Amino acid sequence: MMKKYLKALAIVAPTLSLILFMLIRNITISTIIIGAPLLSIFYLKRARNPSVRTLLLVTHVMELLAAAYALSGSLKQSISQLCRIESPVSGQFRSALLRIRSGVDPAESLKAAFQGNPWCSEWLESLLKGSVSDAQDLFSAWSAKAEEVILKVDDLLSFVIVFSTILPVIFLIILMVSGVEPPLIYLLVVFQLALFQGVYHWIKGLLSLLY
Amino acid sequence: MDKRSTLLTLLRPHPLGIVLAAGLVLTLQEHCEFVEVLAAGTAYLLLLNSAFNLDKFSLGEREVLTTSFLLSFAKTLGRTSPEAAFLRVLGAEKRLETGLGGSKSVFGSGSRNCSKVPSGYTVAEVLRQIRDGVPLTVSLKRIRGLRGTDALLPDLLSDLLSFSSEETSKRICNYVKYRQEKERLKSSLSLKLAVVSLRFKVLTLICSSSMAVIAFASPIFYSMAGLRWTVIPLGYQTAFSFNAEIFLPSLSAAVFSAYAYSKLLPDVSGLRLSIASASLFFATEVALLLVIGWHI
């Protein structure tokens, strides 16, 4: 928590002082140029891009299950091992293990643990309907989903790259045509910076999936 | 990483950040007071550091136990005790490595691409424990700090070995299949990233060159806004001469774009691309000044 706070402070404090300095000079242009990327980042953060996030988490759960099942050969033991490793879904695996210990069937307890997350319970429902007899079933399901993630990553990266190279050119022309004084062209770098900070963590999360 | 080192990473001056901030200071010094220039320059430098000191996306860590080791171990398990199988396979791998030049390791260490091998988990330590008479099932249980799905390996292998060597062998083969599938997916992603990287390099250079053209033609754009940088009152000769006030911010924008976004692509060297981008910017500007200046 503290780490996030410090990181945010280290970025926000200089941004604010720079914005303040810029605002004194040309209030309308500064507000539009700085406000637009900040609003878009705020929107992205708020929406949390459910489709990409969903895809990411489903693939993560699938991979963990496939690997654990390949090694242990039993769902119960896989779940028990998956509770011990650090992951965003460790909590769900722990709750599944508690259910198993109280006598519930492993497949059922897994479904129940992910009940609140429609993205995962749907996949588990179809996969665990008595069809998991071999680790290969889990591999195929995971592999298909991971292929989908790769395509998504490819699309997103292409979009970001085009955006990052073409947008500065367009903005530079807009700034000049609007009559913005030369020192304020540095707002273009501030704009790019705000955009980059937003895009970086989002894309990195996706890329780290398969590495 | 603790909070202190996180903050230090963000505040650590980045060489490129210093160069770009110096550009801002140079541009502002004629327009603002000393205190304002200092405040804006410092804030700008901190902002740039926060972006430039972010970790570059890398190709990730190599497996702690290599696939070839796991396969050989699975094959040898049925014929001998787990400890003997482990030692034999380790010996064979070492001989192979020596033959190949000794750059690879069963435990993934020693390779340039491989990053951190968790502390306390070395070949020597596992070997020492086995030679001290500690069963493999126990020494495997002591291993901690592995990442990703490899974190599952020691405990599950240990449980399986206590149950049956044959079952362990079968299960290791299953795990290797998973690894191979993951390798296939990784190479598919790498291929796509290589295409995106190439596209990024080309587009960055085009962007840099275009920014130089726009910076050179700025009098034309400013004339649309009717400001003092218009072509008519100054005359073509003066208007199309070198203007550091426009040149420096445009160059900064081009270099920032090249360096920052290269952090998302593993095959792109940010430093080299930003140097290429700056050089092309300079070259375009100089070429335009010479050619058009000569004609005017």
Plain-language structure description:
- The complex is a heterodimer of chains A (211) and B (296).
- Chain A has 211 residues and is mainly α.
- Chain A folds into two domains: 110 residues, no CATH class; 84 residues.
- In chain A, 81% of the residues lie in helices and 0% in strands.
- Chain A is built from nine helices and no strands.
- In chain A, helix 3 packs across helix 4 and helix 5 packs across helix 6.
- Chain A is elongated and about 70 Å long.
- The mean pLDDT of chain A is 73.
- Chain B folds into three domains: 54 residues, no CATH class; 97 residues, no CATH class; 109 residues, no CATH class.
- Chain B contains 14 helices and no strands.
- The termini of chain B are far apart.
- About 7% of the residues of chain B have low confidence.
- Chain B is elongated and about 95 Å long.
- Chain B has 296 residues and is mainly alpha-helical.
- The chains are: A mainly alpha (211), B mainly alpha (296).
Describe how the helices and strands are arranged.
The complex is a heterodimer of chains A (211) and B (296).
Chain A: H1 2-25, H2 27-47, H3 50-72, H4 75-82, H5 90-101, H6 106-113, H7 118-127, H8 135-177, H9 187-207
Helix pairs in contact in A: 1-2, 2-9, 3-4, 3-8, 4-5, 5-6, 6-7, 8-9
Chain B: H1 3-11, H2 15-28, H3 34-52, H4 67-77, H5 82-100, H6 123-131, H7 136-141, H8 153-163, H9 165-216, H10 218-225, H11 231-234, H12 236-239, H13 244-261, H14 270-295
Helix pairs in contact in B: 2-3, 2-13, 4-5, 4-9, 8-9, 9-13, 9-14, 13-14
Fraction of residues of chain B in helices?
over 70%
Structure summary, number of beta strands of chain B: 0
* Overall number of strands of chain A: 0
Structural class of the secondary elements of chain B? Answer: mainly alpha
- In DSSP terms (H or I, runs of 4 or more residues), the helix count of chain A works out at 9
Mean pLDDT figure of chain B: 77
Q: State the helical fraction of chain A.
A: over 70%
Mean pLDDT, all residues of chain A: 73
Largest sheet descriptor of chain B: none
SS content category of chain A: mainly alpha
Radius of gyration of chain B: 29 Å
Shape of chain A: elongated
End-to-end separation of chain A: 26 Å
Radius of gyration of chain A: 23 Å
Shape of chain B: elongated
